[in-house]
């Protein structure tokens, strides 16, 4: 399968994200993990920190690149000549919003398809928000985030 984009906020990257990245990278030719640089959103980690963490965790995946985008996802995809957007689905609760976004993106650019990958069972409970909640309250986030970025995430709450 051709070139693909996996977009997100990744605030911060979790093992659920990594699971999707790795599995997609095994079935496509090329995957761009695209970090949304949205000045209006209030992320905990800066855009540079989120991008850097993704670069660290994907460095052993040769067909994965980490990039960023501003504005509309479909415009970014078209600029990169990519026609497949990958989204992860954890539960029925994800479906409604993801379905809405897929339909909007289809309306904006019918050439671009959204494809969904189901999360692995082990990570169905995980989200960036849960990681921040647990880490912020001093809980153990081992197993929730890739080992290589564990300390970077924990240290954010100790500064
Ligand atoms: O990790 P997230 O926060 O669920 O990712 C959401 C993201 C970045 C994929 C989504 O907000 C997005 O595509 N934003 C870009 C703006 C856009 O294209 N909006 C129109 C589709 S609703």
List the helices and strands and how they pair.
Blueprint: E1 3-8, H1 15-25, E2 30-36, H2 47-57, E3 64-69, H3 73-79, E4 84-89, H4 92-108, E5 113-118, H5 128-136, H6 147-156
Parallel strand pairs: 1-2, 1-4, 2-3, 4-5
Bound molecules: 4'-phosphopantetheine.
CATH topology: Rossmann fold
CATH architecture: 3-Layer(aba) Sandwich
Structural class: alpha/beta
Q: Percent of residues in helical segments?
A: 40-55%
List all distinct small molecules, including ions and cofactors, that are bound in this structure: 4'-phosphopantetheine
Query: Main β-sheet, in a few words?
Result: 5 strands, parallel
- Strand content is 15-25%
Radius of gyration, CA atoms, in whole angstroms = 15 Å
In whole angstroms, the N-to-C terminal distance is: 43 Å
Instruction: Provide the low-confidence segments as ranges.
Output: none
CATH homologous superfamily title: HUPs
User: What is the number of independent domains?
Assistant: 1
Q: Identify the quaternary structure here.
A: single chain
**Biggest sheet, spatial arrangement of strands:** 3-2-1-4-5
Choose one word for the global shape.
globular
Count of separate DSSP helical elements: 6
């Amino acid at each position: 399968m051709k070139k693909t984009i996996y977009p997100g906020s990744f605030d911060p990257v979790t093992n659920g994200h990594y699971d999707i990245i790795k599995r997609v990278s095994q079935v496509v030719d090329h995957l761009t993990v695209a970090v949304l640089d949205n000045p209006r959103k209030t992320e905990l980690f800066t855009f540079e920190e989120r991008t850097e963490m993704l670069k660290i965790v994907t460095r052993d995946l040769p067909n994965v690149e980490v990039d960023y985008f501003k504005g509309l996802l479909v415009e970014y995809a078209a600029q990169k000549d990519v026609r497949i957007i990958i989204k992860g689905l954890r539960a029925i609760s994800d479906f409604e919003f993801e379905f809405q976004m897929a339909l909007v993106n289809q309306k904006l650019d019918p050439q671009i398809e959204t494809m969904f990958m189901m999360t692995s069972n082990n990570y169905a409970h995980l989200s960036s928000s849960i990681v921040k909640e647990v880490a912020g309250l001093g809980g153990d986030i081992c197993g929730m985030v890739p080992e290589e970025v564990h300390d970077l995430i924990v240290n954010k709450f100790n500064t």
